[in-house]
Amino acid sequence: MAYSEQVIDHYENPRNVGKMNDKDGSVGTGMVGAPACGDVMRLQIKVSDEGIIEDAKFKTYGCGSAIASSSLVTEWVKGMSLDEAQDLKNTTIAEELALPPVKIHCSVLAEDAIKAAVADYKEKQTKK
Ligand code: FES
Ligand code: FES
């Protein structure tokens, strides 16, 4: 199976790989696994007091499409509100990366990860 140029670009030059430490409750972390293949993705967002995502980082143990999907999402969500990030659709990711049908679940993983990160951040705010 051939990977698209977009996938290879993100795979070879992943954006925003890393980990953020949450010192003040401004970081939300989403950790999700793909039942289809056992891959794992961690996606983190740093949110401003105004509710805007200022930074995003990811670490993905998985295939090229999963790495590319999470890399792309970290680029996209920077500057978004939490609601906008939560509305991100895996189909938009899959389209941008030209993922073939067998790799659609990799983009679902990225959608799940950003949703989980937003949910984690929101839950932290209720405990503040
Ligand atoms: Fe999980 Fe691709 S099947 S690495
Ligand atoms: Fe399983 Fe990509 S995340 S093949």
Automatic annotation (TrEMBL):
UniProt xrefs under Pfam families: NifU_N
Source species, domain of life: Bacteria
Stated role: A scaffold on which IscS assembles Fe-S clusters. It is likely that Fe-S cluster coordination is flexible as the role of this complex is to build and then hand off Fe-S clusters.
GO molecular function: iron ion binding; iron-sulfur cluster binding
Record's GO cellular component terms: cytoplasm
Gene Ontology biological-process annotations: iron-sulfur cluster assembly
Limits of the NIF system FeS cluster assembly NifU N-terminal domain: 2-127
Xref: InterPro entries: ISCU, NIF_FeS_clus_asmbl_NifU_N
Protein family according to the UniProt entry: Belongs to the NifU family.
Protein name: Iron-sulfur cluster assembly scaffold protein IscU
